[in-house]
Amino acid sequence: MNLPTVVTDFINAQNNFDSEASANCFSETGIMLEEGKPYTGRAAIQGVLKETNEKYQSVMKPLKYIEDGTSSVLSAEVSGTFPGSPAVLQFHFTLKNNLIDYLKVNG
């Protein structure tokens, strides 16, 4: 599977529970929707990623990637300490200047 470098970097950082490296995959004004709530900017994204990493200790296994211009969807098996683990989730990315500008995750 051929993934953009920033998506691969995000997956690796998440799988290593490195919220700082994960947040650095986002643009300065990047937005991440977590459980329907928007987090804007690297500091806010790092904070929510740290919290979810500590709470769920989830790891991602990429299954499928579809790209359409600057938008893409990664389907990944996510396993961790959350109810219903493992689950297949879709990560909807918008990339800008080789960084994540927007990310929404749903099941």
CATH class category label: Alpha Beta
Order of helices and strands: HHEEHEEEE
What is the strand tally? 6
CATH names the topology as Nuclear Transport Factor 2, Chain: A
Distance between the termini: 21 Å
Provide an overview of this structure.
The chain has a single domain, classed as Nuclear Transport Factor 2, Chain: A, CATH 3.10.450. The model has no long low-confidence stretch (mean pLDDT 95). The protein has 107 residues and is an alpha+beta fold. Strands 2-1-6-5-4-3 form a six-stranded mixed beta sheet, covered by helices on one side. Strand 4 and strand 5 form a beta hairpin.
Main attributes of the structure:
107 residues; alpha+beta; Nuclear Transport Factor 2, Chain: A; six-stranded mixed sheet; 3 helices; 6 strands; 29% helix
Write a short abstract of this structure.
Helix content is 29%, strand content 47%. It is an alpha+beta fold and 107 residues long.
Chart the SSEs and their pairings.
Blueprint: H1 5-15, H2 19-23, E1 26-34, E2 37-40, H3 42-56, E3 59-68, E4 71-79, E5 87-96, E6 99-106
Parallel strand pairs: 1-6
Antiparallel strand pairs: 1-2, 3-4, 4-5, 5-6
